[in-house]
Design goal:
Elements: E1 16-23, H1 28-41, H2 50-68, E2 74-81, E3 86-92, H3 112-119, E4 122-127, E5 134-140
Antiparallel strand pairs: 1-2, 2-3, 3-5, 4-5
Helix pairs in contact: 1-2, 2-3
Length: 147
Amino acid sequence: MITANAEVEQDDPSDSMAELLLPKSELSAPRARAMLAKLLERVDGGERFTEAGSIVLAELVANAVAHGTRRGDRFIVRLRVNAVRLRIEVHDRSTKEPVVRALAPMAENGRGMQLVSSLSQSWGCRLRAPGVGKAVWAVIPPSQGSC
């Protein structure tokens, strides 16, 4: 069960935004990360979101490709960033919510949502209109590096 579903996105005029429609493909994560890199270049201090944002984005896109789409489907990636947070949303056709799983130390996969949870300030999932699927979102705080 996801407990962070209730977060409401606040419109902020200082937000920079980007959106991309992607296919079910192994090339979708690199394309999404490239869009993130371009977006963060336009934002003062954007580099503070690069590392965690790239990992979270890649995991959410990988989940959409593996579990949220069928052959021929497309899904949407939406990014919003300002000086204090990066919001990542991935909209796909599935209504199945992602779950943070407890794993054996030697498990070969299934750690994606653990990464999302550990790198995000908050994350959640909301159903879209009936029959349309879901949106999985994560809010990434800026890193505390010396930038």
